[in-house]
Amino acid sequence: MDIKIPDSWLREYLSTKATPSKIAEALSLSGPSVEKIEKVGGDSVYHIEITTNRIDAVSVYGIAREAAAILPRFKIPAKFKRLTKPSKNYNFVPKVSYLSAEVDQALCPRFAAVLIKNVSVGPSPDFIKDRLEKAGVRAINSVVDISNYIMLGLGQPVHTFDYDKIMGAKMVLRQSKNGEKITTLDGKSFTLPGGDIVIEDGKGRLIDLAGVMGGNLSMVTESTKNVLLFVQTYNPAFIRKTSMSLAQRTLASTIFEKGIDPELVADAILAGVELFENVCKATSESEILNIHPKPYKAREISLNYDEITKKLGVEIPKSEISGILSSLEFETSWTGGKLGVIPPSFRNGDVLIPEDVIEEVARIYGYYKLPSKLMDGELPDYPQDRRFEFEEKLKNILAGFGGCEIYTLSLVSKDYVVDGALKLKNPLGSDSEYLRTSLMPSMVSAAKENVSQESFHLFEVSNSYIPRAGDLSEEKLTLAGIFKGYGYRDAKGILEAFFLRLHVENEFRAEDMGGFAASKSAAVFSKGRKIGKIGITEEGYIYYEFGVEEIYKLADREITYKEISKYPSQVEDITFNFPDKTRMGDVCRFISSLDDSIGSVDYVGSYANAHTINVKFHSDKKTLTDADVEVIRKRLISSVKTKFGGMVKG
Amino acid sequence: MQEEILNLKNQAMAQIMSVNDASELEEIRIDLLGRNGKLTNLVKKIKEVDPEERAQVGNTLNEAKRTIETLLAQQKNNLKESAREWFDPTIPGILPKVGHLHPVTQAIREITNVFTGIGFRRVRYPEVEWDYFAFESLNMPEGHPARDEWETFFVDVPENKKYGKVVLTPHTSNGQVREMLRLKNPPIRMINIAKCYRRQSDVSHVPMFHQFEGLVIDKNISIVNLKGTLDYFARSFFGENRKTRLRPFHFQFTEPSFEIDISCGFCGGAGCRLCKAGWLELGGAGIVHPNVLKAGKIDPKIYSGFAFGWGVERSFMMKSGLSIPDVRLIYSTDLRFLSQF
After folding, report:
1. Number of domains observed in the structure of chain A
2. A370, A395, A410: residue with CB nearest B105
């Protein structure tokens, strides 16, 4: 979460000559990150990012405490100015006359409240208004402003009730029941799911959605006379659950859900009392209700000097380690190589294990001071997975033949998937609600988007997601492509050349595959297995799709060398007249398989029903004589006639 | 024969010097050096020479041949433009179809090369992932506020008793525990590059993007090694003069955790409008949390490790200095955009 802190306010708790930009730099390098400094009037406002573990720093006071520990490491003197004791004496007591409270300890580890009488509600003094507004909070009236001022200043959310609206001067802090209703200060009404922390008054009315927002039944208004100042810590999990499920995210709930220091409650309530007396000319009860049966107990973490050195990568003297930790208000004690560390109460929630202590030492010592060196030690002895290289090779080949690679979104609309496809619970929109089961619709829509281009070949290598009951989906890596403005022979030729480069045998068999125009598609086989498909879509594009794993397994990575033949070949074009609807792929494949002395068969072209085929006669054992060739040619011609009805022309 | 050679040479030189026409020069060349040329024929006759003189004659022949060839070439070049054979080397070529690899593919290749060069092994783990690997095993139990940082998509399928809900992985960190469980024993040097998904779409966010995640686990792995690795990456990928720095940050699955900055390539670190006082944010990193090692069945008392990760697209844009007003454009399928790479 991001907070804004005016420099002028920060210096109430921090005494230093450091400039705002220096403070920002030092904090960013060793503590919470200052994202920017904004100039407002003559003041500088720090925009600071507070990570979830450092909720102790979510306030002006907390940042001042950090800065006072960090700045001296940059050779800039700085001192943390702690809160002063209030001028009057107050007693923290478990029972008071003005309020009876029943508190579920599991929900609220510390419950404090005090009655403040004869409050005059009006505009706040300028310094409060100024600080709040620079910190990004609108000033409303003195009572609301004091609450916000304490929250931003000290990091402790507080709430104020109109005391006279708490029926029976009684509070019961408990879990809500399913279906209970509450209207909060902002006028929104909620039907509670149950398990939310709520406060009920003496008449059984819900007057607070605790830790999230106050209820409107007990709201302070301009006419409020007596205020109950209310300062608590809550079980973070409950606050989070309520604020998430009701989508009621407030600064208070964001702070409470991180778990804050119960010790802060006392500081906050005393600061509040003081402000009410000064700003609102009010009088506070001197007895403060304080239900806190399990007070904070310090906890020691122990770690070895070696552990610190090992994780940091450098040796820091023990005395410097203790110095760093005590600047952060940690207590330390060395027993030989063992370090005992007691974190202060405000770090009790995030410094739990030795690694947490090491982080504190390292960041204050300065990450920037650590050397930089690659690791030594053994290298992994297992090989690289060659699939990645293979994938790159596929892409390179296709791009080399003029293909343009695209990446399309894996999330598609319902129209683009088959039944049973994986569906998102919380999609961004209906156009991206499902995980795609094929790349085809995405490719067709990419082709359509390029309507102004006359000719192109787009391809993509991405997953399709095939659901599996009771398990994660199968992520099937797929190569898909689409052509526009290419003849079918040109497009198919690119795929044949692609397979040639990969040394993958391939056979295109006419077969009706889904998604294509009737009769205009083929299944592609290699070594008897189906590896993909090609065809012409209804829109007239040529689309193809192959399983990458299938090709990977077939690709001949060890190429066998074949001796270059010593004997010459005889090459000739033979033209046949074929009946209608003869498949030329089948004819060529048939001819190649006829005789060992037929070296290669290439389709040349056609005119009407006349198709020319280029045949190379060749033997690895001898030079074929004209007579040898004549025998094979005769057989070829008669076989083609018998099998396909093709008649030699001329 | 010696004399015959010298005569022929002198005669040829005089002839060549007097010619101003390319075709005449070619005739002379054929007359002397062609298959049946005068000089060629002399070479053929060398066998008939007395063996004692043969070497001498051979030298003379070679020298004569070389002189004539040089002179022919010189004379050809001395000819006026008009007398030369016309050729236009500037004529526009006929281009084949030019293909393009997507910028993400190009960036992934470069990133892979950098890390495999220092012993990392590339892997890929599921995009549709168990909550356990995406969050729970990374020290982020259900309901933890740290989870908010990842705007996660949930898949509408029944929960698994052991692994929880099914999500679209919002980061490549899901590979950390998977890699530990797969390899069992360090040393581990993993680079996991994969698609990730987050529920956000605006000028600086795409719901689908790519991340790469480095994970190193061994004995005695320290912050110093993390810095070494990041600096090595910065210098290899972005350029020799680039540096990185670490700042404190928080991730549940690393302790300590860092944010990585890289020195700005435009101002060289002096500070400019593109950077923050000379630095640009690059990504996140940290020392692997002992709970994560435990989830991967690796003993944190013996081993330590570091991890880092961030976006491929971001790296590509930062490297090329591309100023793309809307990152979603990277996933456009418009050829007018893609053919620029």
Report:
1. 5
2. A395
